[in-house]
Write a structure and sequence with these properties.
Blueprint lengths: L1 H35 L1 H37 L2 H79 L3 E6 L4 E4 L1 H7 L3 H4 L10 H17 L9 E6 L5 E13 L2 E10 L1 H50 L8 H31 L8 E3 L1 H17 L4 E4 L9 E3 L1 H17 L6 E8 L4 E8 L32 H11 L3 E7 L3 E9 L26 E6 L3 H12 L4 E6 L2 H11 L3 E4 L8 H10 L8 E5 L4 H10 L3 E4 L4 H14 L1
Helix pairs in contact: 1-2, 1-3, 2-3, 7-8, 7-12, 8-11, 9-10, 10-11, 13-14
Length: about 650
């Protein structure tokens, strides 16, 4: 019986151990499979291995306790213990290590899985830390950009103000604080109308509302000058430019404000200075015109009567008397030249010299100037040679009067500063630069090299102040400036002791046709004009000038002279007698010469009568105005007898 029980216990333990070994084999197979699929389901294998190990040890000790309980009932304890010890020795070598191995393996496996989880956690932490660092870096960069932008806005010289659709101020930079006198804290959150005078503030809402509704920009994107309102209540001019932007679905408007108070003040001062300068120039012009008139009026009598004395066929002068009269005329001419030069220089320096550039035939100018120069040259036995006669020249774009003045000055200098029996040569040629080069060569003493740089300076006569040669020292200064105003240039070559060559270059016209006119021959002496039953009306308020004209007309047969000392009386005589020609002064008491001419042209009885202006108003602008007004000729005082007789002859032929 006992023996049977023992064997039954052994069989039970063997069955349990076999079960444990089967479970162990299954566990090993599961572990091996689990290792292969660790990456897919590693977190489920480790606990299973540990459970298998614990179950193996549990079943073994359960079988041990069960067997010992059974044996203790049938055999003594000592034998039971001996039997159990035998069983332990035979079965524990497999069961216990297997269970422990599986427990340890499960722990290791679990540890490996935990390590894996820890690494993943650690990597996750690193990723989170990296993301946080990058975010902090981005936030710091954003903060730096914001600070930089704030600094830029604060260092801007113009005020920068940002508002929303409601007109509330969002930003207000430091320059705006300086301009308006408000701090940013005082303005942010308040309506921008606080910075506008009432006249502008009342229109602001309608401007913004209209723009938001229609998109029509009256102020957006357009720079304009407006008025601003400072904190102290003062208004000031400012330049305002407004731009629009959209941020986070919100429309914002940025205004760029510049305080232009100083600029406006400078502009006002400039305008005021310009007005004062214009007034000064006007006063200067009036003074020059008045001085010219006042100087020419007495000179007219002096030179006029001297010419009549010099050329009086009925009462010729003795030789000594002729010489005296010649000196009077020469001195008067020099004084007149000085007056003209000073007036011309003053006009040029003040920018008031007017030019009328037109296509001009240079041959006509050459012929006139050479005729006048030969008269002067004959007195000094100087030969004037024209080398332009066989030269075909194109028209030039010049002011004819001023070009004539330039050429006459150069030719007269070539004669004045020449030796007796010397020569003056005039040449002309077209250059490749589209200019006409006119040169005048003399056989005079030449200009010392050390003085050549002073040649075009005003009032510089190069050491000839004490010589017998009369001059003002400003002729070449005026000539140079006139040539440059006509877009030309003047230059010279001179060798001391051999002579000089002055060249003037003026622009040629670009295929502009020009009518070639035959220059009138200038007569040196007055020639009697035979007229038959003609009447001349002379309107002049100066008694000396009236007497001069009476004397001149008295020498001309067939002309009856009527005179009037006022414009009104002159109009009455013109209506009553219908003269063949009228000579009219400009500066008359009552109505002036221009008004009188207008009245004459309006009347059907006098509109066709030629009217000659004879006046001391000799400014270029006055001459131009007179010819445009309708005067037949415009003669300036002091008169030249031959010019007056030629003008009368021409007018009577036209009558």
């Amino acid at each position: 019986m006992c023996q049977q029980m023992i064997w039954n216990s052994i069989a039970l333990m063997t069955a349990i151990d076999l079960l444990v070994m089967g479970i162990t084999a299954l566990a090993v197979w599961s572990v091996i499979r689990g290792r292969a699929a660790h990456k897919a389901a590693g977190t489920k294998i480790a606990p299973l291995v540990m459970v298998i190990g614990l179950v193996s040890l549990g079943l073994f000790y359960f079988a041990d306790l069960l067997a010992m309980h059974v044996l203790s009932r049938f055999i003594p304890m000592a034998e039971s213990m001996a039997t159990m010890e035998y069983l332990h020795l035979n079965f524990s070598w497999l069961t216990i290590p297997t269970g422990i191995a599986f427990i340890v393996g499960g722990v290791i496996y679990t540890n490996q899985d935990l390590n894996h989880l820890f690494l993943e956690f650690k990597q996750s932490q690193l990723n989170i830390t990296k993301e946080l660092l990058e975010r902090q870096k981005a936030e710091r960069a954003l903060k730096r950009n914001e600070n930089r932008l704030t600094q830029i806005l604060d260092t801007a010289t113009s005020g920068i103000i940002t508002i929303d659709e409601m007109g509330e101020i969002i930003s207000f930079n430091r320059a705006a604080e300086v301009i308006f006198g408000y701090s940013a804290i005082e303005t942010i959150g308040r309506n921008v109308k606080m910075l506008m005078p009432q006249a502008y503030a009342g229109k602001y809402d309608s401007f913004i509302a209209n723009y938001l509704k229609t998109g029509e920009a009256r102020i957006i994107g357009i720079g304009r000058e407006v008025e601003g309102l400072r904190k102290d209540g003062s208004e000031f001019p400012m330049e305002l430019g407004i731009s629009e932007l959209e941020m986070d679905g919100e429309r914002l408007f940025t205004g760029l404000v510049t305080d232009i108070s100083q600029r406006k003040q400078a502009e006002e001062e400039l305008i005021k200075a310009k007005e004062e300068a214009e007034k000064a120039n006007q006063a200067k012009s009036e003074f020059l015109s008045s001085m010219s008139h006042e100087l020419r009026t007495p000179m007219n009598a002096i030179l006029g009567f001297a010419q009549l004395m010099e050329n009086n066929p009925k009462y010729p002068l003795y030789e000594s008397g002729k010489e005296s009269v010649e000196q009077i005329i020469k001195g008067g001419d020099h004084l007149l030249t000085l007056i003209d030069d000073v007036l011309n220089l003053a006009q040029i320096e003040s920018g008031q010299l007017s030019l009328s550039l037109e296509a001009t035939d240079p041959a006509d100018i050459f012929e006139e100037c050479l005729a006048l120069t030969r008269t002067l040259a004959e007195k000094q036995s100087i030969e004037v040679i024209d080398r332009t006669l066989n030269t075909e020249l194109s028209a030039v774009m010049v002011d004819p009067t001023r070009f004539r003045q330039v050429l006459l000055n150069i030719l007269s200098n070539a004669v004045k500063y020449n030796h007796e029996n010397g020569s003056v040569i005039l040449k002309a040629k077209e250059t490749a630069r589209g200019m006409l080069c006119v040169s005048v060569t003399d056989t005079g003493p030449g200009i010392p090299k050390e003085k050549q740089d002073q040649l075009f300076q005003p009032f510089s006569r190069l050491g000839l102040e004490a010589s017998d040669i009369k001059g003002t020292g400003i002729g070449l200064t005026i000539t140079k400036q006139i040539v440059e105003l006509m877009k030309g240039r003047i230059h010279f070559e001179s060798a001391f002791g051999k002579g000089s060559t002055f060249s003037v270059e003026v622009p040629l016209t670009e295929d502009v046709p020009v009518e070639r006119k035959k220059a009138q021959k200038v007569q040196a002496d007055a020639q009697p004009y035979n007229a038959d039953g003609h009447t001349m009306l002379y309107v002049e308020d100066n008694p000396a000038n009236l007497k001069l004209m009476e004397t001149l007309i008295g020498r001309m047969e067939g002309i009856t002279m009527l005179s009037a000392h006022t414009g009104e009386l002159g109009l009455e005589l013109a209506e009553a007698h219908k003269p063949d020609v009228i000579i009219l002064d400009i500066n008359l008491p009552g109505i002036d010469g221009f008004h009188a001419l207008h009245r004459l042209k309006e009347s059907e009885f006098t509109r066709n009568i030629p009217v000659i202006a004879m006046t001391a108003n000799a400014m270029a602008s006055e001459i131009e105005r007179g010819l445009e007004a309708g005067f037949h000729r415009y003669l300036t005082k002091p008169i030249r007898i031959h010019e007056v007789t030629a003008a009368l002859e021409n007018a009577l032929e036209a009558a």
